[in-house]
Amino acid sequence: MHYMLLMTETADDFAKRTHPEEAGAYWGAWNAYIGALQQAGVIVKGDGLQRPETATTVRVRAGERHVQDGPFADTKEQLAGYLVIEVEDLDAALAWAARSPAAASASVEVRPVLPPPGGATA
Amino acid sequence: MTGEGPARQAAALAARTSYGRLLSLLSARTRDIAGAEDALSEAFAAALQTWPERGVPDNPDAWLLTAARRTLLNAARHQGTRDAAAAEIARRHAMLAAEGHDPAFSDERLTLLFVCAHPAIDAGVRTPLMLQTVLGLDAARIAAAFLVAPATMSQRLVRAKAKIRDAGLRFALPEPEERAGRLGDVLDAVYAAYGTGWDSRDGLDASAGGLAEEAIFLGRLLAALLPDEPEAKGLLALMLYCEARREARRDRAGRFVPLAEQDPARWSRAMIVEAEGLLTAASRSAQFGRYQCEAAIQSVHVQRAVTGVVQHGALSLLYDLLATRAPSIGVLVARAAALLAAGDAAAALAALDALSPQARIATYQPYWATRAHALRDAGRPDEARRAFARAADLTGDAALRAYLLGRAADGA
Prior knowledge:
The structure holds two protein chains of two kinds.
Chain A: E1 2-9, H1 11-16, H2 23-40, E2 43-48, E3 56-61, E4 64-69, E5 78-86, H3 90-99, H4 101-105, E6 108-112
Antiparallel strand pairs in A: 1-5, 1-6, 2-5, 3-4
Chain B: H1 4-28, H2 33-54, H3 60-78, H4 84-100, H5 109-116, H6 123-135, H7 139-145, H8 150-166, H9 176-195, H10 212-225, H11 230-244, H12 269-283, H13 290-302, H14 304-307, H15 312-325, H16 329-341, H17 345-355, H18 365-377, H19 381-393, H20 398-409
Helix pairs in contact in B: 1-2, 1-3, 2-3, 3-4, 5-6, 6-9, 7-8, 9-10, 9-11, 10-11, 11-12, 11-13, 12-13, 13-15, 15-16, 16-17, 16-18, 17-18, 18-19, 19-20
């Protein structure tokens, strides 16, 4: 099955990305994690995302477009990236999620990807 | 009648003893518990029609399994998934049909119990799921035991089964490194079934909604399927010790009788003997566990049947151990009660006072009942009376309520 791992991070985590002393450890942890996933051959796709301050949220109500600065929800843990992995079951997906650096400081939401309509397996 | 009687009996027996085995086999591959339940109930209906005409098959379980698998396969075809998935089901169907001819086909119920108590399943629905999938209880019966509306319980069960299927929970025993924690969840869910109706059951009427018998059935199943897990034996022993005293909890007039005043002659000797045997076997592994410890406490209590006295020293030692390793509110209140029974009302009150900041005690009946007894023994009758009245307000058990109100009116 395909699962999406939605990685969140705290403001501290985001700050570490460019912090002169902490950036090394931050990126090292992510590189090690992605490396392990690649070695296991389970990655379908994935990206890291820029800081939540770069987000812009759009809503259309009654045909009118509302554009707003910032992410859709103002919470302590913000979306920082995603991965789609192909593994046997939820337990395997949870095991990968638990190993991610995001799980240790914020959280990872694991969701099965909606299968293509008609049940055909691509 | 002659042709139909045995057939119906065979179907009923198969339903009771084999339901969980068949359902666990049918759902393991597809993870679709609801689909497997539908197929299995169709198979039972077909059996009721076919067996009276053609006789009961040599292996009723295998017959039911084959019939249910055929239904599942047809359902898969109808959904238009005649691609890889259907081919896979067909392949496994063939493989398992061969297996089905073996009267001792594999028992997947343990796997199903672990799925029901999976951490991705809400803790409140784990016990109901087990009762429905492994024992075949209907939602209305489960709802009555958990004191919720039948429609609410049905909805929770449907939602949990959909999660199991759609999120793809693993139908396999957990990896060794997470085995202990996951087993704890399974044991807790079984014990929760035992707890249903324990205090709300009036008198000895087992039909009043409790699930003690079902919980003990699951406990036996776990102890048999996990012969190397001392905690599985510990849980079964604990439930048997408690069950052994059920009748003695009421006097002939149906009034509540506290443990210290129960007549040991009314305890079930057979259940106590079985519990002692289980606890001894469990202790050979020399691994501490919450359920073994709680069972050991019950073991000390039932020694009174032989010795005529309660070993308060042994009890407080076991409660200290339990409170260090598993400090739940129930354990901490029970520890205070043990201090009180040993004659130390001041220490019991101090232990209860230490719990006061916890919000849960406000509605926790055993806390107020224990506090009331401790206040009475400490020579504070007015406070004791108020605590007895508060405890009485918190119980749904008429006999227990009458006992507590009696104490409150007694001048405590």
